[in-house]
Amino acid sequence: MDDSRYTVPSFKTSFFWFIFLGLVFLTFLMIGASLSPGWQGVLVPSFVFWLFFLLPVVIHFVKKGERAEIGDEGISIYQKGKVVQLVWGEIVKIGFQVVMAKRMGVYEAFPYLSIKLAAPSLSKIDILKSSKEFGFIQKFSDLTGYMGQDKLDFYIGMQYAKENDSQQLIHLLSSRSVYIKSLSPLIKTDDKLEYERVVKENFKSGKF
Fold first, then answer.
1. Distance separating alpha carbons of residues 81 and 120, to the nearest angstrom
2. Could you tell me the end-to-end alpha-carbon distance of the chain, in angstroms, rounded to an integer?
3. Residue 85 to residues 31, 101, 120, 200, Cα–Cα distance (Å)
4. Domain residues for 72?
5. Is the domain of 126 the same as that of 181?
6. Which residues pair with 96 in a beta bridge?
């Protein structure tokens, strides 16, 4: 990979080949169980495990091409055959930001690369579809109900970026005048006191 270009993946299947080979093994096991009367007792549980292994394989191939590439010329976002290219001149602000919301009664935090675009360039991101909450692509409108001083236009999920790539990316962005070192976290709450409490408990200076 070019040292000046970094890829942010949208999804990563851990132990992909282990999962794939498990799927193949279970397929043969199910075929054998269906043909051998003495093995039919393992057919149903084998099918359940087969579905369990199948899902991440399907997601892997569906999301394989979905990514963001960041380099000296700007940012390219690939999603379902569509490409959005943003040159640095179209970007007003960029920085890393934490987005938090409750899951099962506990706050979870996810890192994002947050971007504010020049007004004429906002229409470019209209062709991109937002992901589910905490997904790869988020837009300003997806963060309704979140509190925070810095709510920008466009968010790229950093959940699956390697830590060493993230450090190199910070180095690349630091050379840009539009880079903001710290952005206030976004927290899903409409209670200002709750927001301040969560920030105090999780962030030293109220910034990421």
1. 23
2. 28
3. 47, 30, 14, 37
4. 67-202
5. yes
6. 113
pTM, entire model: 0.74
Count other Cβ atoms within 10 Å, centred on residue 67. 18
For residue 191, tell me if it sits in a domain: yes
Amino acid at 36: S
Read off the tokens for 39: 């093995």
Is residue 119 included in any domain, yes or no? yes
125-152 b/e with 16+ CB inside 10 Å = b?
beebeebeebbbbbbeebbeebbbebbb
Render pLDDT for 126-184 as a digit per residue (tens, 0 to 9). Answer: 999 888 788 899 999 999 889 988 999 999 998 887 766 667 788 889 889 999 988 99
Give a yes or no: residue 208 inside a domain: no
For the chain, which residues score pLDDT lower than 70?
1-4, 12-18, 38-41, 59-64, 163-166, 205-208
Give 80's DSSP letter: T
Total residue count of the chain as it appears in this document: 208
* Residue 76 in tokens: 């390219």
Q: Is 199 helix (H, G, I), strand (E, B) or coil?
A: helix
